[in-house]
Specification:
Blueprint lengths: L2 H6 L9 E5 L3 H13 L3 E5 L2 H10 L4 E5 L7 H10 L7 E6 L4 H10 L3 E4 L4 H55 L5 E4 L2 E8 L7 E9 L2 E9 L3 H14 L11 E4 L3 E4 L2 H14 L7 E9 L4 E7 L4 E4 L5 E4 L16 E5 L5 E5 L1 H4 L10 H13 L4 H15 L10 E7 L4
Parallel strand pairs: 1-2, 1-3, 3-4, 4-5
Antiparallel strand pairs: 6-7, 7-18, 8-9, 9-12, 10-11, 12-13, 13-16, 14-15, 14-17, 17-18
């Protein structure tokens, strides 16, 4: 582009429309003002720093072209005060100076100047410097618009997150209501339940139901995965093992006279597997430990479907592990399950628990494991009973964990203390 064409060409983006020229020389103001006006800019002029600041406050310019050497407030101080103004958009500042030493340039940059022009002003150089400012302001304003859009999007996301968080809190309340009874005394025995999800909602479930007399159903369930989907499965299973509506409980069989008999645990697991495996679109499966207890005689029947083995702490301190595996519930169709029979004596304690205990990572990088769980159980049993024992176990677990502030998995357990009251 020839020199004359360059000087007549329009501004690049229109980011600079209003220019304030500051100089104590009326002649310099007139010369530079005429050039800028010919290029299509709206030109404002000031003969001093205070006058320039007043104009900037009332009619903010896109660019300030200021002489450095002026009586009273010089261009350097004007630049500092210009930068201190509360502006919605960035203002470009060019200092006109005869100074060329590196120290002077550094001083100007430190005051907030964007560029420098040596006097007397060359029109080609002035136009080039303005074009450079145009590009910078165009990018800055484009970024500002994008930031505004991003702020709007972030606010929308905050509202969505708030709504989701409220829903999850409500879901947690609903899930907690699936275990309405955390402790129950049945004759001379006591049942205590512990449930600590690793997030708002979880895939663990513990519960009990009493069909009458000295009979008790006690279970511990761990659904694969975490979060909302797993929680929905636990809610469904809670209905299949309902303590409120025995006619819907798969572990019970209706008898004449509005009575209910307990099915064999292996049959209960088979029916539960049949229900879950037949559900279309449900990919989750669960592990189960379920005990049908006769609290009069101490006879217990246990089915273990992929769940951790039951932990039996005898009154004399001996530990027994009950269960040898089995397939999880809902993994494959047409599964049969084995069940285990054992007898509890006065003072014995039976613990059903999820792998949130045994697979918890300790401070030394190892998992707690079955031996570690047995140790925690013994220590807590020596210091308390009932729900206090359960919470003491949980406290001991988290105090030994690598990350005590955040559970890596849901932690749950069901405790039966036989003939202790």
């Amino acid at each position: 582009m020839h020199a004359e064409e360059f000087l007549k060409s329009p501004v690049l983006t229109g980011s600079i429309r209003r220019v304030l020229v500051v100089d104590d020389s009326q002649l310099q103001l007139k010369i530079v003002g005429l050039v800028l006006a010919r290029w299509g800019f709206e030109v404002l002029t000031a003969t001093s720093g205070p006058e320039a600041l007043r104009i900037c406050a009332e009619t903010p310019p896109d660019l300030v072209l200021s002489d450095w050497m002026m009586p009273g407030m010089d261009g350097l101080e004007l630049c500092r005060r210009f930068r201190a103004l509360d502006r919605e958009t960035y203002g470009y500042f060019i200092l006109l100076t005869s100074k060329s030493e590196k120290g002077d340039v550094a001083q100007g940059l430190d005051a907030g100047a964007d560029d420098f022009l040596t006097k007397p002003v060359d029109n080609h150089e002035l136009r080039a410097r303005i074009n450079a400012g145009e590009r910078l302001l165009a990018m800055q304003r484009e970024l500002s618009v994008k930031n505004q859009h991003l702020s709007v999007a972030l606010e929308e996301l905050r509202e969505i997150h708030k709504a989701i968080d409220n829903d999850l809190r409500q879901a947690r309340t609903i899930q907690q209501s699936l275990v309405p009874e955390r402790v129950a005394e049945i004759g001379t025995s006591r049942v205590s339940l512990l449930l600590h999800p690793c997030s708002h909602v979880g895939g663990d479930l513990v519960g009990m139901f009493r069909p009458g007399g000295d009979r008790l159903g006690l279970y511990s369930i761990d659904v694969s995965g975490h979060g909302i989907t797993s929680a929905m499965v636990t809610a469904r299973v809670a209905g299949y093992l309902s303590s409120t509506f025995p006619e819907q409980n798969l572990a019970l069989r209706a008898m004449p006279g509005n009575r209910f008999a307990m099915r064999e645990p292996a049959e209960t697991a088979r029916l539960l597997n049949q229900r879950l495996a037949a559900d279309p679109g449900v990919e989750e499966y669960l592990t189960l430990a379920y005990v049908a207890a006769d609290l009069r005689t101490g006879h217990m029947r246990l089915v273990q479907a992929g769940h951790s083995p039951a932990l039996l702490l005898r009154a004399d301190g001996q530990i027994e592990w009950i269960g040898d595996g089995g397939l999880p519930i809902g993994l494959v169709e047409d599964v049969s399950y084995d069940q285990h029979r054992f007898r509890m004596a006065s003072g014995d304690m039976l613990l059903l628990y999820s792998d949130g205990f045994t697979e918890a990572v300790m401070k030394d990088g190892t998992m707690l494991g079955e031996d570690g769980l047995a140790r925690l159980f013994r220590e807590s049993a020596a210091n308390g009973s009932g729900p206090d024992l359960m919470e003491d176990m949980f406290w001991r677990l988290t105090s030994e964990m690598e990350n005590s502030d955040k559970l890596g998995d849901d932690v749950s357990a069901a405790l039966l203390e036989f003939d202790v009251l």
